[in-house]
């Protein structure tokens, strides 16, 4: 069975590498063509940024594969031997085993995060993160893991040790945990990393409140997040569920979009709530989690002996985390397919709350400021795009095919390809 999983992981890695190579070749072939949506200099910069990010992804694919092989051939046995020698009960051994796995994985992947932040993002003018902020963020993340993460792991280990159908009860626990995190994230977790201030622009506040009233939605405040201390990219979102919902605007977004464009973007986000897209995604993710827990909860016991371990709770849970990408890689295109359909409907709703022109204008600014390359290979879109390609969204919004914008782009240039 272990040999089958290694073969599947090899196929999975080969597919991801193939998709990345196709995306790289596609962007390189389009980089020097006539630009779309943005000016030539910005178009090439966006292409170069996408190329560099995809090269990092390629490296990450190979690293993920090598780490998987190391863990199943040597690493699990190594960690199990250490935890067995140091501690005397399966419960304690499981906690040490999982903590060791997370620590090693964190240390080995941290350089990629550092390179992305301080080399690539800095090169293209995105990151405002200083080494001090980065270090503080890492300390906060580690502290959260030590305070809450180990508690969650302890409960999961107890479930595995206590029930014959542990995989089912663990599945229920994880789903409840995901819902709880979504509930507390905007008010408890997010403020640990960013400062949230009530929106000071009273005129805009009144407009947003009127927009929400028209949609029949209530939120626990409208806040501005100090995103600019880390990154210059633009974003806005509705965070939380139930009474914890709040409107969050990046300060970078307020600087670049006018009121009408902001209302169109928020109208789009409201559309997701009105159409129940959040709950639809949760249902799809619940199905995915059930499949994962069922499959991995019924693995043959000899797979653990081949990794030179015993089937203690920590080994089972860690192994599940390692093979999780195999299942999600197959399932995520399904989720993304429905997600792209939801985005079109949310665009329609956002347009009805403001106008198609305002939403189109906002999307164009987002492309420009976020250096989003407007073209992608179809296979890359199929596997990874949770949003429709920006050109397709603009076409659906009725973007004028014959009218040139400030960057001298005509959408007919895209249609002719």
Helix content: over 70%
Q: What proportion strand? A: under 5%
Give the overall shape, derived from the CA principal axes. globular
Total domains, how many? 1
Kindly report the average pLDDT value: 87
Instruction: Tell me the radius of gyration.
Output: 23 Å
The strand order across the widest sheet is 1-2-4-3
Stretches where pLDDT falls below 50 for ≥5 residues? 404-417
Order of H and E elements = HHHHHEHEEEHHHHHHHHH
Q: Total number of helical segments?
A: 15
Number of DSSP E strands: 4
Major sheet details: 4 strands, mixed
Q: What is the first-to-last residue Cα distance?
A: 47 Å
Structural class category: mainly alpha
Description:
With 417 residues, this protein is mainly α. It has one domain (2-197, 267-415). It is built from 15 helices and four strands. Strands 1-2-4-3 form a four-stranded mixed beta sheet. A hairpin with a 6-residue loop joins β3 (236-239) and β4. The two termini are 47 Å apart. 27% of the residues are buried. Residues 404-417 have low confidence and may be disordered.
């Amino acid at each position: 069975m272990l040999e089958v999983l290694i073969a599947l992981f090899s196929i999975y890695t080969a597919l991801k590498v193939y998709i990345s190579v196709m995306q790289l070749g596609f962007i390189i072939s389009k980089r020097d063509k006539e630009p779309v949506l943005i000016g030539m200099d910005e178009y090439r910069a966006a292409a170069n940024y996408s190329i560099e990010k995809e090269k990092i992804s390629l490296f990450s694919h190979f690293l993920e594969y090598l780490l998987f092989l190391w863990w199943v051939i040597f690493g699990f046995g190594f960690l199990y031997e250490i935890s067995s020698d140091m501690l005397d009960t399966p419960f304690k051994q499981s906690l040490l085993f999982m903590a060791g796995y997370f620590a090693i994985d964190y240390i080995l992947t941290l350089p990629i995060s550092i390179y992305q932040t301080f080399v690539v993002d800095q090169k293209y003018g995105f990151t405002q993160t200083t080494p001090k902020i980065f270090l503080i963020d890492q300390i906060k993340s580690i502290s959260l893991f030590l305070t809450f993460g180990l508690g969650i792991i302890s409960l999961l280990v107890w479930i595995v040790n206590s029930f014959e159908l542990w995989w089912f009860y663990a599945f229920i626990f994880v789903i409840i945990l995901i819902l709880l995190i979504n509930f507390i994230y905007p008010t408890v977790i997010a403020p640990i990393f960013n400062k949230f201030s009530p929106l000071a622009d009273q005129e805009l506040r009144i407009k947003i409140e009127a927009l929400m009233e028209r949609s029949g939605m209530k939120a626990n405040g409208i806040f501005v997040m100090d995103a600019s201390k880390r990154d210059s990219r633009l974003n806005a979102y509705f965070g939380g569920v139930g009474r914890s919902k709040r409107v969050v605007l990046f300060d970078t977004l307020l600087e670049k979009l006018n009121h009408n464009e902001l209302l169109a973007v928020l109208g789009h986000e409201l559309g997701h709530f009105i159409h129940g897209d959040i709950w639809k995604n949760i249902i799809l993710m619940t199905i995915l989690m059930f499949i994962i827990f069922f499959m991995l909860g019924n693995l043959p016991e000899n797979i653990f002996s081949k990794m030179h371990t015993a089937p203690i709770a920590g080994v089972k849970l860690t192994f599940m985390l390692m093979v999780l990408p195999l299942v999600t890689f197959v399932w995520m295109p399904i989720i993304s397919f429905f997600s792209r359909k939801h985005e079109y409907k949310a665009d329609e709703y956002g347009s009805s709350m403001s106008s198609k022109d305002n939403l189109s204008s906002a999307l164009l600014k987002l492309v420009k400021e976020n250096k989003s390359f407007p073209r992608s290979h179809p296979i890359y879109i199929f596997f990874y795009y949770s949003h429709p390609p920006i050109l397709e969204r603009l076409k659906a919004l009725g973007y004028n095919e014959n009218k040139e914008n400030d960057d001298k782009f005509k959408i007919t240039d895209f249609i002719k390809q």
